[in-house]
Amino acid sequence: MTHTGPAARQPGSPAPLGATVEPGSVNFALYSKQATGVELLLFDAPTAPVPAAVHRLDPRINRTGPYWHLRLPGLGHGQVYGWRVDGPRDPAAGLFYDGEKLLLDPYARAVTGQDVYDRRAAATPGSNVDRALRSVVVDPDRFDWEGDRPLPRPAREVVYELHVRGFTAGAGSGVDETLRGTYAGLAARAGYLRDLGITAVELMPVHEFDPQDGPPGLSNVWGYSPLAWSAPHAAYSSDRSPAGPVDEFRGMVRTLHAAGIRVILDVVYNHTAEGGPDGPVLSWRGLENTAYYLLKSDRSQYADYTGCGNTINSNHPVVSRLILDSLRWWVRHLHVDGFRFDLASVHARGEDGTPLEKPPVLWAIGTDPELAGAALIAEAWDAAGLYQVSDFPGGRFAVWNGRYRDDVRRFWRGDEGMIENLMARIVGSPDLLRGEEASPSHSVNFATCHDGFCLRDLVSYDRKHNEANGEGNRDGTDENHSWNCGIEGPTDDPVVAALRARQARNFLTLTMLAHGTPMLLAGDEFGHTRAGNNNPWCQDNELNHLDWSAAAQDAGLLRFTRLLVAFTGSLRILQEDRYWAATNPDRKGDISWHGVQRGRPDWSPRSRTLAFTLEHPSGTELVHVMTNAGPQGLDFELPAPPDGEPWLQVIDTSRPSPADIREPGAAPPVTSTVVRVAPHSVLVLVCRPAAR
Predict the structure, then answer these.
(1) Catalytic residue at 342?
(2) What is the pLDDT confidence band of residue 586, given thresholds at 50, 70 and 90?
């Protein structure tokens, strides 16, 4: 690298923030309103123990208002740098300046130095320059996209949530050993994802996070401990050059797009890795603590609505601009197709923690023209009890439908009083999503996600088993609404194993048939287990690493899932993003409800049955679904299909593979007007009359 001397320095510009590559130079700009001194440090290598050059900024020349800036000729893409910022240290006033700490640029596009990073050095007195993470200058135009663009949203999104490292870290992943657990490794499995039939991957956090922010002897594996909101996590890259992770991430996106798969990021803008007041000084805390974080009346303490020690002050103008700029960066320069906002209800809180009717940052995201084509999904709650699934602000946001998860789990467990709730979930939860712009696609329906039991464990455990996390099994939710089918954990009992397989198929079937945006958890399609751990956030092992070996996979379940996704993808009525009308005597509708008797759903508290018929307005497609969550088989009356066309039996979850779901064109006709639905099972029939 070439380092310019003082004579070549230029004042620079306060905009844009971050490190911006210009012809022959780099402009550095930083927000720090109460700083009294700022230094820019340049490094020759990611792990260099000392800087090659230190540029102290002159406030008379290099400061405009609260912004510090400097332009240095001769620098460019790949330059490693960091900031030191001095100022008053007055915890009672919420000020934690520490001029000895090397700070990450909040606008960093890449982060390096992981091989020498020590979190403890950033939390104890003294310099940490030799053990700190460093920012990297990135030229966004140094990549050949080969014509790639973000993909348009399909008629019906099918989301597949996965962990980048866990997806291919296992030895049986089928990718080269050097690529396991990386962006390139994920790209190598694009064909598998395409064949599964999903339309989007939702990646658990891939922005640079702090693995050292975990329990003693364990690491923060899931990534909900952010360090830099615009930098791809370097450990997920096989290219460990300073800017290499950016290009490898973009290569992954390009490959997934070529396979027809959109990329949605799980983004964590609600807290940071700096933790509570005793945590490390890594970036935001050492730059402008009172702007970036929500503080209590005792300004030395952080408001904690996230359960992670601090809460981002996302409706502060400077912070909301940083969040918007980060989102635009991912879309504009990394071609990301959408975002899932972790603990999104935090962004609805004002500086005193009170929920705002129109939170500025959420409305800014929802109305930003650069984000107009991006999927926006909210985890519409936070750790302090704010639950906004029914009224999340911002207009455009879809929501993770936690009510769908809970109601469907309770129905299949056999809980009383679930029929009306189940009906609402099947039709896209219009009882919850009441905004003017609400539509069925805004309900992200899932039975499992990264947080809580995976599918195999949902049907195998009544209780969580999180002892390996080192917190005395206190972590993770206690409300799993699960059923172990008679035995806790692994079993050789063939009756219990068959019932568990049936229940797994039930969850998948209803999730794919319910109106809205279905979401699957990676590994559920072939029976991955976490051994009953419902919160393995700190387990970098087989609990999170998918086992792709034939011995570990349920090939029948994988076949079932692939055919189920394809079947539901062929149903026109599921592709139309409108709420269904119910059939009544005066007009034809989209859905009619039944019980074991045609046209007579059983709404009694003890009911365990529900049936419904979907009919596309064209009259060329009918689907009849019968569910029986009870312990005895029951006879269901069938509605008469039009024109004497037969019903064809596509799915019977009570039957083992391959009879559980039929290949296209191989579904047998149903000749009776009454069919038996086995206990704990779903039966799905289809009729496709000729156009009339």
Answers:
(1) yes
(2) low
